[in-house]
Amino acid sequence: MPTSSPAVLSNQASITSLLTVDLDAVDVERLAQALVGKPRVQLMVDCKTLRCQRTLGVSHVVSQLLQLRRSGASIWLHNVNPTLKRCLQVLHLNDLFLLS
User: By its UniProt entry, which Gene3D superfamilies does this protein fall under (predicted)?
Assistant: First the structure.
């Protein structure tokens, strides 16, 4: 469901769309394919309620995030928990995502 956030859009003027993504409910492979070639899309993932991190592990979440990133989208991770944040830092991936 598309939403827009003036604060995010003003910081990154080249981004035209902000989409909220629920990693627990979306087929990441299909979404990534749909995003290829679509310029200036930013995805917002609220990490506070990610069931898949608890059930499938942090590596699963990181893999999904990287797959979406490869599609060309920018990714904003909201409510990042310490475990995911540390994992992204250790893997030197924290610069690929906007963390809040």
Answer: STAS domain (3.30.750.24)
